């Protein structure tokens, strides 16, 4: 083995830094597809009403489908416990200080699950609008959540996560007037990073828009697995 | 801050590549970082020093090339590089597009070593 001495060498690579996560996410996506599990990854800030909304949706979907949820919690939180009230199968992923979920955590969590028995899997990501954007979890749909109480200009502060998401949900729509929320500015703020993005306006408290979102999910699930059912 | 996680992934990839290519020492790494990668450049640079400690990459320089957003406009049927990441619109005809060709990458593309 002859090696050049003291000669600087340039090695060309062109490799994605998150390659391992991406490969694992691709494998997960394939497994979910084969077992016809529709996977929804939900990202938001803390306090945006994600857990309340999800508890409601899990409870309703559970009447017709087998539904499960994975919840990414920092060590100090416990959203999983609240979600269990829906009656759905819930598993907590305690991330410690890590501010996002990675594909490996998903794989570890579902290791002993019979995916064949499952129709929907919801992944509640760690509450934060920056870090989760870089990590593919093998989901079918990425949902970014905002609430009226966060102000209408929030989406433009987080263009990357908005762009990486497939749909958006605006929660606490019942508080629209109370918090003086400008809906038109909000939509502009969203469209800056994601033109014509589909947005659902919901209120878990006043039962607004939840069934519409649910119908959308059921429809998307049917579309995603249509070819396989023929 | 997820840049520390990214930095560890970067160092792991660089060490593996260096070993495969029989590099004894790595002087510099070149990274392409898209404006829509979700990674903050300064935070990554800071994390990089921590993540390299005790590896063969320790002391190497991290050179980050920021990659602007490149979109495809379906109306003009052309590609454009945007000066600013938002709004994600065609600079010519102002139509919005979700066809992003470049600007999301976190890509290690070169190692300089000996
Ligand atoms: Zn155009």
Automatic annotation (TrEMBL), chain B:
Name the domain of life: Bacteria
Q: Which InterPro entries would you find in this protein's record?
A: Hydgase_Ni_incorp_HypA/HybF_CS (IPR020538), HypA/HybF (IPR000688)
Asked if the record carries the keyword Amino-acid biosynthesis, the reply is: no
Q: Where are the transmembrane segments?
A: none
Gene Ontology process terms (BP): protein maturation
The GO terms this record gives for MF are: nickel cation binding; zinc ion binding
Alphabetical UniProt keywords: Metal-binding, Nickel, Zinc
The residues the record assigns to binding Ni(2+) are 2
Does the UniProt entry include the keyword Metal-binding?
yes
Pfam family, any one: HypA
Chain positions recorded as Zn(2+) binding sites: 73, 76, 90, 93
HAMAP family of this UniProt entry? HypA_HybF (MF_00213)
Q: Which family does it belong to?
A: Belongs to the HypA/HybF family.
**Summary of the function given for this chain in its UniProt record:** Involved in the maturation of [NiFe] hydrogenases. Required for nickel insertion into the metal center of the hydrogenase.
Query: What name does this protein carry?
Result: Hydrogenase maturation factor HypA
Species assigned in the record:
Ureibacillus thermosphaericus
The major lineage groups are: Bacteria, Bacillati, Bacillota, Bacilli, Bacillales
The gene name reads hypA
């Amino acid at each position: 083995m002859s090696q050049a001495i003291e000669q600087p060498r340039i090695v060309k690579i062109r490799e994605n830094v998150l390659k391992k996560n991406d490969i694992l996410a691709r494998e997960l996506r394939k497994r979910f597809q084969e077992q016809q599990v529709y996977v929804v990854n939900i990202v938001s800030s803390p306090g945006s009403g994600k857990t309340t909304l999800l508890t409601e949706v899990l409870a309703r979907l559970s009447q017709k489908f087998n539904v499960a949820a994975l919840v990414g919690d920092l060590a100090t939180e416990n959203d999983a416990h609240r979600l269990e009230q829906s009656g759905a199968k819930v598993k907590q992923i305690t991330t410690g200080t890590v501010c996002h979920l990675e594909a490996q955590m998903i794989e570890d969590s579902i290791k002993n699950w019979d995916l064949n028995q499952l129709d929907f899997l919801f992944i509640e990501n760690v509450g934060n609008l920056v870090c989760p954007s870089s990590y593919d979890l093998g989901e079918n749909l990425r949902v970014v959540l905002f609430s009226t109480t966060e102000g209408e200009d929030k989406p433009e502060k987080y263009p990357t996560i908005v762009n990486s998401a497939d749909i958006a949900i605006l929660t606490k729509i019942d508080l629209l007037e109370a918090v003086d929320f400008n809906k038109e500015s909000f939509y502009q703020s969203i469209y800056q990073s994601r033109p014509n993005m589909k947005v659902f306006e919901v209120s878990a408290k006043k039962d607004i828009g939840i069934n519409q979102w649910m119908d959308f999910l059921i429809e998307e699930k049917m579309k995603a697995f249509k070819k396989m059912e023929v | 801050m997820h840049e520390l996680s990214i930095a560890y992934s970067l160092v792991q990839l660089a060490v593996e590549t260096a070993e495969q290519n029989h590099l004894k020492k790595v002087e510099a790494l070149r990274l392409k970082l898209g404006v829509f990668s979700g990674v903050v450049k300064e935070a990554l640079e800071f994390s990089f020093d921590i993540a390299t400690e005790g590896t063969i990459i320790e002391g190497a320089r991290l050179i980050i090339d920021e990659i602007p957003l490149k979109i495809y406009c379906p109306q003009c049927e052309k590609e454009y590089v945007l000066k600013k990441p938002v709004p994600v619109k065609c600079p010519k005809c102002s139509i919005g597009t979700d066809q992003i060709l470049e600007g999301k990458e976190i890509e290690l593309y070169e190692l300089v070593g000996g």
